[in-house]
């Protein structure tokens, strides 16, 4: 088991009550809610700038079972402007920019997420694949279609949270320079 090495860039807002374990770097402007969980089991996680990780969201970096014996420790890179909504569970080995993981969705560790994708509420994606840019997964049967645009940025919500969360939660101090 790896030791905790949490690096928080200036401008990030990370609630002390969040569960962070392993080698994790958190980008500037990223907000992590109090009961979010981020576990770097297979190797380091680097979270890009301006991501939003909401209550009970889980990001877990673990190797697929058929790769458990490899000696190299891959890095999970999560791009900028991603939104992980309440109670989503994401184990993807690579996540691009501007994606939305809606409430209670599940993304397995053999699914690569490119840019501008939306995994709908309650959808479960586990089959090995690379999601094309701007793909939307939705509905009971997890149908896929191509979106016309990328999901919008959560700028107003991020601004509100950066003002409100420090009033009600202890915030971890940045410990790394840009």
From TrEMBL:
<dbReference type="InterPro" id="IPR011004">
    <property type="entry name" value="Trimer_LpxA-like_sf"/>
</dbReference>
<comment type="function">
    <text>Part of the dynactin complex that activates the molecular motor dynein for ultra-processive transport along microtubules.</text>
</comment>
<dbReference type="GO" id="GO:0070840">
    <property type="term" value="F:dynein complex binding"/>
</dbReference>
<dbReference type="InterPro" id="IPR027777">
    <property type="entry name" value="DCTN6"/>
</dbReference>
<protein>
    <recommendedName>
        <fullName>Dynactin subunit 6</fullName>
    </recommendedName>
</protein>
<keyword id="KW-0963">Cytoplasm</keyword>
<dbReference type="GO" id="GO:0007052">
    <property type="term" value="P:mitotic spindle organization"/>
</dbReference>
<comment type="similarity">
    <text>Belongs to the dynactin subunits 5/6 family. Dynactin subunit 6 subfamily.</text>
</comment>
<keyword id="KW-0206">Cytoskeleton</keyword>
<dbReference type="GO" id="GO:0005869">
    <property type="term" value="C:dynactin complex"/>
</dbReference>
